Structure formats: structure tokens, C-alpha cells
Amino acid sequence: MNKNLSKSLLIHKEKKYQYHINLIHNELMKYHTIKIPNQNIEIKNQELEDWIIEKLSPEEIDEIIFLLENAKKRASSVKPIFQVIATSLLKNV
């Protein structure tokens, strides 16, 4: 593969990843805390964002973006998506 092409692809992936992180950040800022259903646990938006960045791969973050974008297209709340993410991250601890 051409060296310039591979460098270009890497830059594109980094920009895409940063765009996804910014989108997650902007959506999470709409909620001060995320409550975990059926548990007495609340996670602050910034803590959940940090946890997502730390624990999830870029491919998993792509999947989250897909879910968020589809929920927004349907004028649905994205908070339940973040509740499921927080629940799954807690179970993996």
C-alpha cells in the first residue's frame, strides 16, 4: 500500500474517532447523571464518557454512534442507550 495512502487512512480514522467522541460528549452533556435501571446507582455524565473512552474499542464506539444517530432520527431519547451502556460497563468490572 502506498505510504501516503496509509497515512491518509490513519488520519481519517483519527478524525472519525474524535468526531465520535465529540458526539458522545455532546449527547451526554444533556444529562447531568445517568441512572442505572433497577439499581441505586447514578453515574455522572463525565465519568461515563471517560469510562466509554477507556473501555470501548473504536469499533464499539462506532456501534454506539449508529444507535445514537438512529434514535435521534426517530426523535427518541438517547438516555436509555446510555443507561444500557453504563449497565454493561458495570457488569464487566
TrEMBL record:
| Name of the featured protein | Uncharacterized protein
Which species?
Niallia alba
